[in-house]
Design goal:
The chain is an alpha+beta fold and about 375 residues long. It has two domains: about 5-210 and about 305-380, no CATH class; about 210-305, Elongation Factor Tu (Ef-tu), domain 3 (Beta Barrel). The chain is about 25% helix and about 40% strand. It is built from nine helices and 27 strands. Strands 15, 16, 17, 18, 19, 20, 21 and 22 form an eight-stranded antiparallel sheet that branches. It has a seven-stranded mixed sheet with strand order 1-2-7-3-4-11-12, with helices on one face. A six-stranded mixed sheet has the order 6-5-24-23-27-14. A hairpin with a 2-residue loop joins strand 25 and strand 26. Helix 1 runs parallel beside helix 2 and helix 3 (about 110-130) crosses helix 4. The longest helix is centred in the N-terminal third of the chain and has 19 residues, at about 110-130.
Amino acid sequence: MDMEVQHGKDRLVASTSRAQDPVAAVAELVEGLDGCELAGGLLFCSHRYPRDDLARELGRSLPGVPLVGCTSAGELTDRGYDTDSLLLIGFPASSFSMAALRFDDLDHFDPQTAQGAIRQLVSGARLDHGAAGDLHQVALFFVDGLSHREELLTMTAQHALGDVQLIGGSSGDDLSFAETAVLHEGEFHSDAAVIALLTSRRPMHVFSASHYQPGPAKMVITQADPETRTVFEINAAPAAEEYRRLAGSPAETLDVHFFAAHPPMVRTGGQYHVRSIQSANPDGSLTFYCAIDNGVVLTIGEPVDRIAWLRELFGKVGARVGEIDHIIGFDCVLNRLDAEDRQISREISALYSEFNVLGFSTYGEQFLAAHMNQTFSGLAIGR
């Protein structure tokens, strides 16, 4: 048995299993909850688990506990960066409430209908809590990481949420790019998204940050297909070769490690944001994780000192919520690959453990109304 338990008065309870059999894994999760009554929970799982079996066992072992979450491209557990594991984060009923809704068939997503459902979710939660003050709400968002619909869904959701801030991540499958899924109402769903409204008197703060700064190399997208997020030409030259040339590594292979080390960045709203590349294609084009279009001007990002950057970030987060109970982290899978390549993953894992970061490695992060790439985003919950 391999599990980790963290609990205390009204604290979030977290349980991890690395057992390969779903029955054994869920049994360890339940044991790790130590009998805590939960308002709901988040579940992040390796794509290697058989989903139907896992969902069935969760429903049998945790009847009546609302669970939302998704498949991952790696997990953030008590070890920091982790793989092939199952993580459950529970919200104690003594200090939290949680309500969720799901959107299916994302190719035919109707923003107007969705906004009405989201507003109803928010108003229902507020009615349940009455007019009491000092109430904090956050919307946790999980979406199929292969849907290519994150931008529309995120903008739609945040608009309907009003002053309730949204934070979340795109589900993964360990860079297989075959099938990802979100968990809701006892089943895993592909081509779907889930919004979970978390309400508490506990201080909660959402954040998103990137440890890259813009470099001198500039490039303009001159031919692209926005629907498939594919770029065919950069600076009127074949996209893959021009990107590799501007990155200054003409002999290197264009793979996920290269993309992680040389992230394209775009300036929007006075700030630079990463627009990560998912794959280099046989025809010389590039497929992106985020929306991309003709005329977009990009620069290639350069890393800062990530360890110092993380310590500063956690200091700022702590200043907002006081003593940190846990941080639910949405960490781009490319951040993990880059940490491994730069041989700093052990130090980052130690920092995540020190500041009680739990979550998963994503195919993209959602923050307020934006779909992001190569960020470390999260929800910090104070004690």
